[in-house]
Amino acid sequence: MSGGVALGAKRAMDVVGAAVGLAVLSPVLAAVAIAVRVSLGRPVLFRQVRPGLRGRPFTILKFRTMREPRPGEVWYLTNEQRLGRLGRFLRQSSLDELPELWNVLRGEMSLVGPRPLLVHYLETYTPEEARRHDVPPGITGWAAVNGRHALRFKERLALDVWYVDHWSLGLDLRILARTVAQVVFRKDVTPTEDLSLGFPLPPGDPAPASAANAAAPARRAAEE
After folding, report:
1. What is the number of domains present in the chain?
2. In whole angstroms, how far apart are CA 116 and each of 55, 61, 99?
3. What is the separation of C-alpha 62 from the centre of its chain, rounded to a whole number of angstroms?
4. pTM score, whole prediction
C-alpha cells in the first residue's frame, strides 16, 4: 500500500472509529459529564492548547478531573490533592480521554499516534525527538502501550520517534488492541506522574528542590 493510500486509510479509520465511538459511548459521555458537573462544577471539559501535527497548536478536550488550585498552591505540586476520588477514577479508567474523539473527528488528532504533550516541552526536544510531530498526535500510541506513565520523559520521546519510523495500519491495530487490554486491566496506568521521571517543569515555576528526595515525592497530573 502506497504512503498516500495508507494515510487516507488511516484517516478513514479515524473518522469511522471516532464517529462510532461517540455514538456508542454517548450514554457514558453523558453520565461522566453529569458526574463532573455535580462533583467539580463548571467547566465540565478541560481545554488546553497542545502542539499537534508539525507542532501546530490545537485545543485538546478532556473531562475535567481536578479542582482549581487554591491561593498559594503550586499547580504541579498539589495535583495529587486536587484530583479527588472521581478524578482518580476517570484517569485510571481513561474515561477522561473520551472527549478527544471529537478532536479526532476534527482532524486535529488520530486514534493512534504520539500523545500530545505540553507546549513548553517543545523547546526541550532535540531535532530527532521533534520528529514525533511528523504524524498527528493520538489518543493512544506506541509509548502508551509500552510503559505509559511508568516511562521516563526521554524514553517516551524515543518510543514516539520509533512509531513515526515504523508506522503502518497493522501497527495501529496492534496498538488499539493493546490499549483496550491496558484499560481493562489498568496496566501502567496511574492518575498522576512522578516528578522524578524527568518531565520538564514550566518556565518560571518554582522547582521542587526536595521533591526527588522526599519520602512521598510530589506528583503532578499526567498531561493535564
Report:
1. 1
2. 10, 11, 14
3. 9
4. 0.85
Grid coordinates of 152: 521516563
Residue (of 141, 77, 103) closest to 17 by Cα position: 103
- The residue among 170, 206, 211 whose CA lies nearest residue 192 is 211
What pLDDT, in 10s, does the model give residues 88-119?
Answer: 899 888 999 999 999 999 999 999 999 999 99
Q: How many helices (H) and strands (E) does the chain have?
A: 6, 6
Residue 209 falls within a domain, yes or no?
A: no
Range of the domain at 24: 3-203+215-221
Q: What is the pLDDT of residues 18-76, one digit of tens each?
A: 999 999 999 999 999 999 999 989 999 999 999 999 999 999 999 999 877 777 665 55
Residues 6+ apart with CB under 8 A from 33: 44, 63
SS3 203: coil
